[in-house]
Amino acid sequence: MLTSLLPTTERALLRRLAREQRDGRAPSLIAGLVRDGETIWVDTRGWVGGEPATADTQYRIGSITKTFVAVLVMRLRDEGRLDLADRVEDHVPGTSVGERPIWQLLAHNSGLTAEPNSAWWERTPGVDSETFLDEIDKDAMRPYPQQVFHYSNVGFGLLGELVARHRGADWTEALQREILDPLGMRRTTTHPVAPYARGWAVHPWADLVQEEPTEDAKAMAPAGQLWSTVDDMARWMNFLGGDTGEVLHPDTVMEMRTPTTVDDAGTWTAGIGLGLQLQRHRGRRLAGHSGSMPGFLANLLVDPDENTGAVFLANATAGPSGALAVDLLDILEEHEPRVPEPWQPAPVDPALLELTGLWYWGPTAHVVRILPDGMLDLVPWQGKGRASRFRPNADGTWTGLDGYHRGEWLRVGRAADGTPNHLDLNTFIFTRSPYDPNAPVPGGAESWR
Question: Which residue intervals define the domain DUF7586 in the entry (predicted)?
Answer without folding.
Answer: 348-432
